Each structure stands twice: as structure tokens, then as C-alpha cells.
Amino acid sequence: MTVNHVIFQTPFGSAAMVYTCAPFQLQKVYLPRQSNTDLIQDIEQDFLISQNGYHSHIDVLIKRLQHYFCGHPITTPWKWLSWQKRTPLQIKTLKETALIPFGEVCSYQQLAKKIGRPKATRFVGSCMARNPFPIFIPCHRVIRSDGTLGCFGGGSELKQTLLNLESNETISDRSNPTGRLSHN
Predict the structure, then answer these.
(1) Where are the domains of the chain?
(2) Which class in CATH covers the domain with range 88-183?
(3) Active site residue 106
(4) pLDDT, position 30
């Protein structure tokens, strides 16, 4: 599939999105990193890139992500997300993940229960690892049952930074089984 990409700046480094134009569909979000070279290599490894397309909807998504990286909640652009190559259970899991409120966390085990598969903790973890739309589908809000962060495609430091960004002067009570962040 030939796609277009855009690289944009965030307070945490360069991020990117890959999309198709006709119809407009977001294919993947690449989390911020310091090296544009690594970012471009990852995009080229995943997709055949075209330099000929542009769609104005991508500007809307860039603004949403930049707004998020400044500490504001984000809405999921459901009608623009491409669900190709996802099973119904993966889609259900990602959609349930998107329901985790800004500033809160949920454990992999809690999420498995929410999708009706209480023993599917590893499946949930695998689904989070393959989430093509990080931030829009906030897999960084999914943590281990013991309150530790778990893995994240952008690294554990970025995961903690995003959780801190969302808490905005709140203190996370990792022993709280509901996963809610406590406010000062």
C-alpha cells in the first residue's frame, strides 16, 4: 500500500503519522523521538511512501496531537482510523482502551476483564504493543496490576512522561487498584 507521511514537532521530539488520501485514513502514529533519521527509517520499514499526496485532515490530527502534548485531553478520530489487518477482538480491545479517561490508568488485567476475556492479559499486552494509533488510543494508560508501568512502544520514560503530563500536578497512587490518579 502506498501511503503519505508527515513529520511534525512536539515538545518531546519529532513525531509522525502515515495516512492514505482517498479515502483519508490514518494508518499509523509514530511516537516522538529525538532522531528524524530513526523515525524515517521506521516509516520506510513499515510502508511504501509516496511524496505526491496531501489531505487537509492530517492538519487537524497534527493539531490534536500537539494540543495533547501540551497537556490537554484528546478525542479519538474514529472515522479516520484504518482498522485493516485487525481482528474483531483487537478492535474491541483498542476501542475499550480509548475509553480510559485522561489522567487515569487501567491494568492489563482490568482491560482483559472489560473485553470479556479475564484470562487474556497477555493478549491485551500484545494488542497494546501493536497499537497503531498511540495517544489517540491511549495504550500508555495501561499498566501492570502491581502498579508498575509495563512496556510501551515509546519506552518507559516516555510512558511515565505522558502519565505525568496527564496528571498535571497530580500524584499517582500506584497502590490504588482502580488506577485512578489522586489529585493534590
Answers:
(1) 2-80, 88-183
(2) mainly alpha
(3) no
(4) 96
